[in-house]
Design brief:
Length: about 130
């Protein structure tokens, strides 16, 4: 049912738990996973590339140990828009993401809420 799963990874400690849910789904549906890291150039204070790189490596290792094919993409921009654009461009079947990361703009809307509104495919939000 889900051939390709998009897994946006942020700096939160919950990112690995979200990866575990994506792994479970991928194993059950024989899916591929595409991990996505989005850097926000205008928000340098929240872009800790060492933390993200470490999480990406940890998650990718865990995914590949389960025998699941995994690609990694790194993009720049506003996370919700980039996530939805990548999902559309790559024709993914499901986005699996956490609820913790906030897009701290003036409206304080969460990235997950915005992705749910804009996504071209189903979105599973992992608490």
């Amino acid at each position: 049912m889900f051939k390709t799963i998009l897994l946006p990874i942020d700096q939160s400690r919950e990112a690995i738990e979200t990866a575990n849910k994506a792994i479970e789904l991928a194993k059950n549906h024989k899916s591929n996973i595409i991990m996505l890291s989005v850097i926000q150039p205008e928000r340098a204070e929240v872009n800790n590339s060492e933390v993200v790189t470490s999480l990406l490596h940890k998650a990718r290792t865990k995914i590949e140990e389960e025998g699941i094919h995994c690609d990694v993409l790194e993009k720049e921009g506003k996370p919700a828009f980039v996530i939805c654009d990548v999902a559309d461009e790559l024709n993914v079947d499901l986005i699996v993401m956490g609820t913790r990361g906030l897009n701290l703009e003036e409206d304080q809307e969460s990235t997950a809420a915005r992705v749910i509104q804009l996504a071209p495919c189903p979105v599973m939000v992992v608490p």
